[in-house]
Design a protein that fits this description.
Oligomer: single chain
Helix content: 40-55%
CATH superfamily: NAD(P)-binding Rossmann-like Domain
Radius of gyration: 17 Å
Strand order of the largest sheet: 3-2-1-4-5-6-7
Shape: globular
Number of helices: 8
CATH architecture: 3-Layer(aba) Sandwich
CATH topology: Rossmann fold
Order of helices and strands: EHEHEHEHEHHEHHE
Low-confidence stretches: none
Number of domains: 1
Mean pLDDT: 96
CATH class: Alpha Beta
Length: about 240
Amino acid sequence: MMNEKTRTALVIGGCRGIGREITLRLAKDGFDVLPTCRKCSDETEKLAEEVRTLGRSCRILELDVRDRAGTRKVLDAEFADNAPDAVIYNSGIAKDNLFAFMDPEQWDDVLETNLRGFYNTVQPLVFGMLARHGGRIVVITSASGQTGQAGQVNYSASKAGLIGAVKALAREVGRKGVLVNAVAPGVIETDMTKDIPRDAVLPLIPLRRFGKAAEVAGAVSFLCGEDSTYIHGQVIAVNGGLVI
């Protein structure tokens, strides 16, 4: 069981878009939060202040998920004595192109961030969670990883890889009380989706609207809370019916 007195949540990629809403929601749920970003700014400090007004502590960690050694150094320094109660992996980028025209950098950059970054940030913390016999790992994947999407072979491959990783890791660590699940958003209103042609996409969504980042954060909140203690190795879709 998680420590109810000093629950901590590490939110990888927790300062913008969906990650920002996850950070705020978990703070509202009573977690002290440690969101990460590549570089602190006025916006990250504003987030920290918002968390503090909720009565929880917030410490921004600077790291680049692609830098294995640098990331390990930051995490070892922060969690040398105790692993976080919840780890949310939300780091991700998209560089879309038809596969026939996709250059090596578009492929490598997306796989490095979305999939390799998961190993670099989550793997160093798993042993501590196993030693404590408890914890939650929630990975933000995508509807594109569930069904595939034209023009997103790199992105779909990375997000499908995360789903496979979640299911395999769940089989490894469940007996030690560590719950592992994924949340698969559909089209969510963030900077990443601002250029999507709404008229073309909305007819594909039964609810006829894009999702809100707060709606994804709600699913993460559920998976980190006490009402989800028998949910393990699952993919929770938050997509308005885009993938059924």
